Amino acid sequence: MSTAQPDESRASFEGVTPDGKLHARPDSEVTPEDLVLATGRDVTPDTLKWAERKLASEGSAALEKLLP
């Protein structure tokens, strides 16, 4: 059984990680297929149409909302 205090077992942090470093963003443009696959759905004509509408209204932020 450990006798370490809870504070001793944790690494000290200088501050909070900036939000921009926590998000993954592709170097290329987000495609409708990327968005469909990020939702776990099958790529079908209907899901591609949904993704096209979503990208048209939200841009690449649509993918970031799914994959922070």
Order of helices and strands: HHHHH
> What portion of residues belong to β-strands?
under 5%
Helix content: 40-55%
Biggest sheet layout: none
Specify the overall morphology: elongated
Number of helices: 5
End-to-end span in angstroms? 37 Å
Region (Disordered): 1-33
Explain the overall architecture.
The chain has 68 residues and is mainly alpha-helical. It has a domain at 30-68. It contains five helices and no strands. The chain has helices at 6-9, 19-22, 32-39, 45-58, 61-66. Helix 3 (32-39) packs across helix 4. The radius of gyration is 19 Å and the shape is elongated. The two termini are 37 Å apart. Residues 1-33 are annotated as: Disordered.
Short summary:
The protein has 5 helices and no strands. With 68 residues, it is mostly helical.
